[in-house]
Amino acid sequence: xxxxxxxKLIQKSPTFAVVDVAGIGYGVNxxxxxxxxxxxxxxxxxxxxxxxxxxDSMTLFGFADQAEKDLFLMLLDVNGVGPKMAQRxxxxxxxxxxxxxxxxxxxxxxxxxxxLGKKTTEQMVLTLKDRxxxxxxxxxNVEGSGVTGMGVLTGAxxxxxxxxxxxxxxxxxxxxxxxxxxxxxxxxxxAAALIPEALKYL
Length: 202
Description:
This protein is an alpha+beta fold. 48% of the residues lie in helices and 20% in strands.
C-alpha cells in the first residue's frame, strides 16, 4: 500500500495533483481543501495517500494531513459512501467540522453538504458517531490541529462556528470566539445571537 508520497509538485488543480517521485509522475485525487493547501508547482510536497484498488482500476487519493486521511477511511465504512463521494464531502467541509456534525448528530448541518442525501446522512451518524467523538477528542489533544478543546459542538454553537468559517475566520479563533459568546449569552442563545457576539472577540 502507498501510505504517502513526497516529491516535486508538477501539476495541480483544485481536485487533482501530479507529483514527480524519482521521475515517475503519480496522479493523485485530492479534496478541494487539500488543493488549497498545496504549494506552488515545482515545489516539494508531501501527501498522505490511500490507494483504492478495484477490479478495473487503481486510484490514488491524497491528503494534506493524517487527520483528513483518517476521516476519508472512516467515511468509506459508511454504506453508500465510496471514495469519490468521500472526496467530495471532504472538499466541502473541514475535518474538525465534519467530525463535530457527526458526533453531535447534527443531521441538519450534514444535509447541507453537497452530495449528501437524507439516507446517507442518517447512515453516517449511525455508523460513525462514537468514532467521530473519539477522533475529535484525539485531535483536540494535538497541538496545531485546529481543534480547541471545546469538545463536540452542538446546535447553535456549531452553526455559529460554521458561519464564522464562511466569513473567513479559522479555528481556533472561531471556536474560542463562539465559546466566549456562549458564556456571555447563556444556554438559550441561538446562532443568530451568538454570531454577532462572537465577532466582538475576533
